[in-house]
Amino acid sequence: MSAQIALDVMIGGVITGGLYALIALGLNLQYGLMRILNVAHGEFLMLGAYLTYALHVSLGVNPLLTIVATGPAALGVGLLLHRTLYAPVLGERATPQAVESRSLLLSFGILFVAQNAALLVWSADLRGYSYLSTPLRLLGAPFGANRVVAAVVALAVGVSFYAFLRRSLVGKAVRALMQDPDGARLVGVDVRRVHAFCFGVGVAMSAVAGSLISMAFELTPFIGLGYTVTALVVIILGGLGNVLGSLVGGILLGVVETAAVYLVEYDIRPIVSYGVLSLILLLKPSGLLGR
Amino acid sequence: MPAPPLLEGHEVSKSFGGLRVLDRVSFRVSPGEIVALIGPNGAGKTTLFNVISGLSRPGTGMIRLDGDDITRLAAHAITRRGVGRTFQTPRPFLALTVEENVRAASRFGGGRGDVGALLALVELAEVARLTARQLSAARRRLLELAMALALRPRLLLVDEILGGLLPAEAERVVTILRTIRTEHGIALFWIDHVVWAVAQSADRVIVLHHGELICEGEPRSVLRDARVIEAYLGRPAAPA
Amino acid sequence: MGGIGGDVTPPKAGGDPRGDPAPPGRPERWGVWGAISGPPIFLLVALVAAPTFLSSHARSLTVAVLADVCLASAWALFSGPTGYLSLATGAFFGAGAYAAALTIGYLAWPLPVVAGAAVGAMLALVVGALALRLRGPYFAIFTFGLAELAKHVLIWYETRVTGTVGRLLLAPPGPWTLYYTVLGLAVLVVAVAVALRKTSWGYALIAIGADEERAETLGIDTTRVKVLTFALSAAFIAASGAAMAPRWTYLDPQVFNPLVSFQTVIMALVGGATSVAGPVLGAVFIGLASEVLLLQFRYVYMLALGLTLIAVVLFVPEGLAAGARRLRGRRRSPAS
Known about the structure:
The complex is a heterotrimer. Chain A is mainly α.
């Protein structure tokens, strides 16, 4: 493989991976903190994408600008869902295993509702719009400007959240809860509020990622599941609960997938992500950066 | 000549992250012996039991049962070789009755335990039809014991079976433990804090402190040993 | 206790007073059939005679519901007592269907079904060996995308290696053969489910679901028990796929459908995954609803299904069968 091609693959991988990182980050917050396996994660991505699509196509709003709408809206939805559905299940005194399986099933229900609501509103037809589709040359290789912008924004959001976790007081509370739930409680961290906040932020990240994805890819109401699986692979790859791990893992997976697709000349991305998942579960289940 | 040991541990060590929980602990239990394992909280006693019973892998060191190396054997395999275990917090199957619990345990172990005799031994025969959930804490301990015994062990790891019991209840349990040894020849490796029980029943006592074995010997001499007293009273430790 | 929402009491043979429980371990054969008395036998007879008096549409509907019963009961064989939620049903179903499609020209019926079962079991052994060494959530994650993965692998294989996409089913068996095959499978699965609970194997599964570590210290080789039961469950699921394959004259990788995975879980859970009757009830209830509503009001129906699931999880977590039993006052399944 020539150096130029290797470089193209690397950059393409980072571009893909940047989005993966953001998607995974949201899921990681929910699972790492609350052990909520939110299989509906990708559906929020899908809904965010459709919202941006609708705003752009009917009102002519700049897709990047729609994030200002989809982000907070998703945060609100997430807070509401947590309060009405997950908090009651999490609060009951039951074994962790029962709690996990019940929240998994709740997420299932949400998946069904979200996907079919979208199908009712927008039907199963492919939809999309054109935005910044002119190619941008990065170090010699052409990439769609929309994809580059999407990746840059995604990474920016991801990295700033990571910084937020390290610097701010709320961020410290979140980290404290992730590392030592009982200790955090003793120090006065309001567990329920932090949980609700993190759940909401997770949903918001998913929706924002969806908005970004809509700029460069076509949409159907079925795209959610694939991204959920990708997010799951990334968070296991990077280590459950490890925020930096999601960022690194996302980019790593993006690069590996891009390289594999280039080598095989076929879209074997699902096979690649499963292969990566199997490898990690076999060799180091706690993840690359996990303890 | 002393009997060849049933259970032997050589320099068993275990760390969790940076914390050294067991530090080169060596021990020995002979057939039919009652060996008590004492030490202040956090000394690593339950960890040692976890390592012996296969729920935890040791970092370094070797454990032998009847001369066979069982250090890295899976928990179920170790159980099948004759090492039974009770847990500090009893974990019976709450929805099943006492009798069903013991029967289930005996089935798992190969189906040869005499359930009635076991229940009589631990004095739970009269509550055989109650569900485990309905039992008092003291009786749950005895149920744990019966379940472990249903597997026909030659060695029983007993983890703080007397904790929180009233003196009369504790007496009863101690008598049962001694019967297990005398009438069934089962060796006991026994963690506890209740000193009188230990002094009365154990053949030997091992003392752990901060993961290290600090003293070993007959109950009377160990309980008077200066190092042991210091460990329990918590005089300032030597600088690290 | 694990599983979904509640403690598990292995069922006593019907009518036995609580004070004289069936000793676990003695395969209670006559007791089992004693329990299956009254309405279920009547139902069974009716089902056997059904093709003689049902219209072809009604018969077709019954086959579909019976297949759902197979799937839900087979799923609950493993996932019920252990609490390991398998989302791989769609993958096994598709594997069985494909196995049947490949062998139907060469093997006499019902051997393609057996082939399907074998393929399902082998697939499960591989997946199980990988995923069952880990805790429940990892297992669910791993099985989650399996159907999609199988589809992609097959598409890739067929386009690159064999050059054809999809299989035509030549010389499929007639509708009555199909009906009795599926009925036979359903009866077999339910019988296995009942019998399993009385054996020490069944108790081991419950022990694993209750407290896996404790089960290990009671001498249970948990990995072996889990993997073998998972394979058994997968064999039945794949067999169902194989038995149903002739209904589609043309099979393509779309038969690996995550929807099958989801719907099976929902059926078993709505009915109650920890009893034998639960998955059957759930399958009949939701299977009927889906066959009737899916075609006409597909998206609305699925949306309602999602809402139903949420409602069940929030309010009747141990499932409708157990909830109904509670209402009727029988002390079978304790509420959690």
